[in-house]
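haha ok so turns out i had the wrong file open the whole time. this is the CORRECT one, sorry everyone. sequence first:
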Amino acid sequence: MAEMIRDTLFTHKDGGAFAFDADVSRVFEDMIKRSVPGYGLTLQMIRVIAGLYAQEGSKLYDLGCSLGASTLAMAHGIRVEGCSIIGVDNSEAMVSRCEKYVASSPVPVEIFQQNVQEVKFINASVVVLNFTLQFVPKEERLILIQNIYKGMRKGGVLVLSEKVSFDDDFTQQQHILLHESFKKAQGYSDMEVSRKRQSLENVLVPESIEAHHARLLDAGFEKSQTWFQCFNFVSILAYKL
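then structure:
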């Protein structure tokens, strides 16, 4: 990837809903690294998961691919022949940058500008939703997960990484405090943290860990497990048996 540009957007941006526009795409690599605890480890494990579960001659999907970090993680993990990766993002700015970043992929990659809800899944063995479902309207999430399941081979897996909420008020507030303290430790100011939180209200809509597991079961996945959690960020692995 190109040299990482430091995220200072919210030192001057005050007001308006968060959007994955050209300004965000320019600093996104730094933004997500400094905003999501455990993000780097999640990418490392996506590479491991792709190596374990990618099936010969199948397709792997990166939904909400942004700059293609998960795409490349999967590409470098695949150990079987005949695989290809499809990356999807609805942001024109993200897709434009992503196409350049994934040009170095060791396996064929196609990047499409499209809403993830519109994707037709075919012959999938690994599907990744890495901090993407939280931006999909809640009423459309089950249908998306059902479509993934229907288009997946037996033995396939879904990686679902999300910011989550907690029903218990004390637990919820403590995780918010821990997350915001993490961001300040990464160099964000109180003002930046506050402004970004306000911009994400009603744009990023988190749910509980229990709600995610229940939806996966409703969609058809026979088993799911939370394999990673750091504060209010988790990653779940769901299996089609």
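The first strand starts at residue 59 and ends at 63.
again sry for the mixup
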